[in-house]
Design brief:
By secondary structure, the protein is mainly alpha-helical. The chain has two domains: 13-160, dinb family like domain (Four Helix Bundle (Hemerythrin (Met), subunit A)); 167-235, Nonspecific Lipid-transfer Protein, Chain A. The protein has helices spanning 13-32, 36-39, 50-73, 83-94, 98-117, 121-124, 140-155, 167-181, 215-222, and strands at 127-129, 135-137, 187-193, 198-202, 205-213. A three-stranded mixed β-sheet has the order 4-3-5. It has a two-stranded antiparallel sheet with strand order 1-2. Helix 3 crosses helix 4 and helix 3 (50-73) runs antiparallel to helix 7 (140-155). Residues 27-156 form the Mycothiol-dependent maleylpyruvate isomerase metal-binding domain. InterPro entries: DinB/YfiT-like, Maleyloyr_isom, MDMPI_metal-binding, SCP2_sterol-bd_dom_sf. Pfam families: MDMPI_N.
């Protein structure tokens, strides 16, 4: 079977499926080392505890499984009934006993993997709609999940940092966020990764500000998760960016 061409951003379906699997291991290994009482404390996302974060990751797998069902059967099944219902489900999930919450997260991840494995070549090209209202093909679903498990493994605050994530994933993540930030208010940027790791232009207002750092540092910065290890022109601090994802 011919390998599908790489979509924009230099990532293939195989890449995204592999990163989903790797990110799931990274996330659940970190979670396994985290005592239940640590889930009660704050995550790295403002206003969320570890319980909220874990409930979100579990609900996200269920939501993406809805899109897989849509692609496989043609029956429209949105990710969430509404933004309000999504938020309510996360709050309700965060109140579950820790063992039940952990089991939900593991179960939903396994079910999503199983459902993705059932898609055939035609179904991978079926259009579905994201929670943000974008129409994409089912090819996008593994990438959406890879972002969730990788980035939120860092947000869990259990010792995983962006430097522990695969370089290919980090480059694809920067490409993805750079495109999305170009459509939102913010400063124009030119990102340069150390060691020839890549360069990205981020559209925005004003003359582009050059920001340099490692792939991990640039991914953390562009996603609004700190600016350690990245600098602007002449070693000055780079512009502040809001959180993404």
């Amino acid at each position: 079977m011919a390998t599908p061409p790489a979509p924009p951003g230099g990532r293939t379906r195989a890449d995204a499926l592999r990163w989903t699997a790797e990110g799931t291991v990274i996330l659940f290994d970190a979670l396994a080392a985290l005592p239940d009482d640590r889930l009660d404390g704050p995550a790295r996302l403002p206003g969320w505890t570890g319980r909220h974060l874990l409930a979100h990751v579990a609900a996200n797998a269920d939501a993406l499984a809805n899109l897989v069902h849509w692609a496989r059967t043609g029956e429209e099944r949105p990710m969430y009934a509404s933004p309000e219902q999504r938020d309510a489900d996360i709050e309700a999930g965060a109140a579950r006993p820790a063992a039940e919450l952990r089991a939900w997260a593991g179960r939903s991840a396994r079910v999503l993997d199983e459902r993705l494995a059932e898609l055939d070549e035609r179904q991978w090209t079926a259009p579905v709609r994201t929670a943000q209202g974008r129409t994409v093909t089912a090819e996008e679903i593994p990438w959406m999940r890879a972002r969730e498990v990788m980035v939120h493994a860092v947000d869990l605050g259990a010792g995983v940092e962006f430097g522990a994530l695969p370089a290919g994933f980090l480059a694809a993540l920067i490409t993805d966020i750079a495109g999305r930030r170009a459509a939102a208010p913010g400063p124009a940027l030119t990102l340069e990764a150390a060691g020839g790791g890549g360069a990205w232009a981020v559209g925005g207002s004003g003359e582009p500000v050059v920001v340099r750092g490692t792939l991990a540092g640039l991914a953390a910065y562009l996603s609004g998760r700190g600016r350690d290890g990245v600098t602007g022109e002449g070693g000055t601090p780079p512009p502040d960016l809001p959180r993404w994802l």
